[in-house]
Specification:
16 helices; 77% helix; single chain; mainly alpha
């Protein structure tokens, strides 16, 4: 084995720990989704319609704390190492789920999610660990492990949440807390520090919106980022309201909701693992984005108007899975529009926009759901999905105009700019 391909002793164990960490984090996210409506109704004493708006606020608090603290935790991991930041994050992960399991009131849930969001360094620190231990030629494959963990966790999480909720809606939180605590103990004994060169911590660099300001000098990119915001805002609607929508429209149990969410994970994994690599080279990046967005809009309209029974939801989940084409296609087009020395800034700006949509979409869309399911005036559980379809369409129009003016990137097919 040459020096370029040599890995440090214990790299396999480190990658396994990181894989399990991301897997458990996604399991925890998936566990929450099918049981949030019942939990919100219990701690607020409200009906499903009103509870949805409270649930949106909980998502907002988590995303806001994560948005503000992620760059800080990234800087701290560069200063003090990956090991302490990741282990502390895992401890707070377990503590957060214990708080939610015991929460007697809505205020407890808000505090729990704020703490969890503020210490949610799992993904960024896990990626930093992979960069630390992987030789360049193996880095892409090792990052691919994180994508696999992400997808598998989202399939397992909802099913585990729906299944264990049969014994009580607080039980899934205790299961997630136990998994997180066990992983923290495992990491304490078997996860070594991977950072070799530490740097001083800088508050100026720990700035969540600085990259947005920086890339604004590229006028085209700024317009595309606005389009990206609208598209991601729409994309985040389903995770925000699907459980409430399914319960209101079909009176689904937590287990039925969990099965549908697991199917979302399976179809997304098929698209991400196989179809993306075939479709984008065949039709080009721009057409792939248009295809993905069209399928997402069709599925949202389908949920709202053309799914009178729960079984038909699975058809629209299948159609909407092709929305997985949007992100890689848009990333490629945006990357081709900025110079090589600004790629890091661009990715930081993309991450900031995604964080902003994770804050705003749940807050607004659950409020719309609440407004249109409160038995006063028009009752229409699909209202947020209709708005999401309009936002995605509005975001695609300027994106298509701008993207057609850009030369195709080097790895696109000739049809990419058509």
């Amino acid at each position: 084995m040459t020096a370029s391909t040599a890995e440090a002793p214990g790299t396999g164990r480190t990658l396994f720990f990181v894989f399990v960490t991301v897997l458990i984090s996604m399991v925890g996210f998936g566990i929450i989704m099918p049981i949030m409506p019942a939990l919100m109704m219990e701690v607020t004493g409200k009906n499903l319609s009103a509870a949805a708006s409270y649930g949106g606020f909980v998502y907002f608090i988590y995303a806001l704390a994560q948005f503000l603290m992620s760059p800080v935790l990234g800087g701290l991991s560069d200063r003090y190492g990956r090991r302490p930041v990741l282990l502390i994050s895992l401890v707070f992960y377990a503590f957060d789920f214990v708080l939610m399991a015991l929460a007697p009131s809505f205020a407890w849930l808000v505090i729990a999610r704020a703490l969890s969001g503020a210490t949610a360094a799992t993904y960024s620190t896990a990626n930093a660990v992979i960069a630390d231990v992987s030789p360049p030629e193996k880095r892409a494959a090792n990052f691919g492990l994180m994508g696999a963990a992400f997808g598998i966790g989202f399939i397992i999480g909802p099913v585990l949440g729906g299944f264990t909720a049969e014994w009580g809606i607080r039980i899934p939180f205790l299961v997630a807390a136990g998994l997180g605590a066990a992983n923290a103990v495992f990491g304490y004994f078997f996860f070594p520090e991977t950072l070799k060169d530490k740097r001083e911590f800088s508050w100026k660099r720990a700035n969540p919106i600085g990259t947005l300001i920086s890339v604004s000098r590229y006028g085209m990119v700024l317009i595309v980022l606005i389009s990206f915001f609208l598209i991601q805002f729409a994309y985040n609607t389903l995770p925000s309201v699907f459980s409430y929508f399914a319960k209101a429209k079909y009176d689904w149990s937590e287990f039925n909701i969990s099965l549908a969410l697991a199917y979302v994970g399976i179809t997304a994994a098929i698209v991400q693992a196989g179809l993306i690599r075939r479709i984008i080279p065949a039709i080009g990046e721009l057409r792939a984005v248009i295809l993905g967005a069209s399928c997402m809009v069709t599925s949202m309209v389908g949920y709202a108007f053309f799914a009178p029974t729960g079984a038909q939801v699975y058809l629209w989940i299948t159609v909407g899975a092709l929305g997985g084409l949007i992100m890689p296609g848009m990333q490629a087009i945006m990357s081709a529009a900025v110079p090589a020395d600004s790629q890091g800034e661009l990715q930081g700006a993309v991450a900031s926009v995604m964080s902003l949509t994770m804050m705003t979409s749940p807050l607004i869309m659950t409020q719309i759901f609440s407004t249109y399911t409160d038995d006063v005036g028009i009752v229409f559980a699909g209202a947020p999905l209709v708005l999401a379809s309009l936002c995605m369409t509005a975001g695609m129009i300027p994106f298509i105009i701008i993207a057609r003016r850009q030369p195709a990137s080097g790895h696109s097919s000739p049809g990419a700019s058509a």
